[in-house]
Design a protein that fits this description.
heterodimer, A: about 300 residues, mainly alpha, MetI-like fold, 16 helices, B: about 290 residues, two-stranded antiparallel sheet, 13 helices, 2 strands, transmembrane (chain B)
Amino acid sequence: MTSVAATRPKRGRARTPKPIHVQFRTIVSPHQLNSRWGRRIYWLVLAAVVVTFSLAFVFPLYWMVTGAMKTPEEVAQVPPTLVPAQPTLAPFFEAWELFDIGTLLANTVYYALGAWVFCMCVDVAAAYALSKLRPAFGNVILGAMLATLMIPPMVILIPLYVTIVDLGLLNNPWGLWFPAAANGFNIFLLKRFFDSIPRELIEAAQIDGAGPLRVLWSVVLPVSRPILGVVSIFTIVTAFKDFVLPLLVMTDSEKMTISVGLSQTAGAVTQNQVMGGLVIAAVPMIIVFFVFQRHIMAGLTAGSIKG
Amino acid sequence: MGVLRRNLTAYGFLCAALFCFTVFAWYPMVREFVLSFQRTDLINPPEWVGLANFQGAVQDPAFWEAWLNTVEFTFLALVCGYAVPFVVALVLNELRHARAYLRFVVYLPVMLPPIVAVLLFRWFYDPGPGLFNQLLDLAGLPPLAWLDSSSTALISLVLVATWMNMGSATLIYLAALQNIPPELYEAAELDGAGIFRRIRHVTIPQTRLILLLMLMLQIVATMQVFIEPYMLTGGGPENATVTVAYLMYQFAFSQMNYGQAGALGMMLMLVLLVFAALQLRWTREDPA
């Protein structure tokens, strides 16, 4: 790009601006975009969008972090300060103590990772059976599993809770893990991917004497890394973010998740301490997003039908 | 491998999933139906009460208001959460710079645990030192009561819900927009179609399926709003933000009336099933 701009002959008084590079065609044609006014409007819109997005989505988070670095007096001050006058990390430590965040965070991570391991074992095995072993009534089972996607979780919350109470799974992580594994969407994604694995690959392994478990472990799983990554991240993120079921199932303060713990104690502490707690709860997910951005964005559209 | 043996192995692989689905997905649906005709406190054996739970639910003073609020919430959330992401996606798709940044930023709130967004906005809505009233003040406008007034409480909840959820819809639309063949735009342009007619006659028909799908998903998702009223308003002021899901929670856990909660759940399920059926029909009709 820079070499192109440098070699272009100068026209008139002003240096010709760099053309806006068009990778693929969209609604506005490249020609229109690179006209004199097109270019001005483009940069104006770009600037407006970047500023609006930063204000709408980044500024609230900035406010949360700086709110946690202010003193209680400063946080309640009118008008508020844009930058903390005396930034302090004390509210983070206070929040850690008051909310007992160490325990909450450890619980949440434990539940999320447990849900992930259990979900993967159960759903991968089921999707493999439905896709490659094709048992009698396999399609009926698949249909019934997918039908659960039509029923929003909130609607069966009460009977699910009643069932969990009946089984004595209150305050037991299995009360979260079993329902998490009954995830029709995971089965759907995994089965669809397994369906695309060529039959020859599996037959070759079978001729070499591999049983079904061996085929799953040594052939199917290694080629399914992309979908396993997507399903893993979504399972962990969903479990970490989940609120309503842990609210009902994990009622002991020793066993609460971080979301529920924050919701229970938030009214009893000062605003800067609440913000400190929120920052600590948000950081793990923001790190996950930074690291797995690609997988998450790919997974978002993996399930949807192409328009 | 014999047929019997293959079936046995297959069901061996399936049994864990069958257990989870049977006990924690399929049975609760049946249980909801049974529950709605019973009175139970989960300790003593349940007794059959016929349609009393449905009667009780309908006669609850907040029942009709809850449905009205849910419909209103869904409608407002559709305006904000459905139209806005599409327009945002249209604009983002035209931009050639800062794409990664914008996509990252719009999805960031979706990654946060909902409790973080909700408690953060509770602070913003604070009538005193809250950010929103301070901004209004800065702009020379009078302050609003936000969550404390029955006229603004519901829209305040919609605002949080939109902020924390719009990222996923935006990215899904963006992916759909990128799948539109560029030749269609070129052809439309040759035929003399301006920008708005290109949107009207190329973009929207090309993304029709995903637009329909997202419409239904949005309706179903917003019909079960819970965490926003639960954390922000407790259904108030004057029941202005009681949603059906929240009322269900109250029946079960404030009044310990699980049967009545089950009855309300059945009604919500029926309404949502109608939407699901409509969705299935509309998407089936599409040749794509």
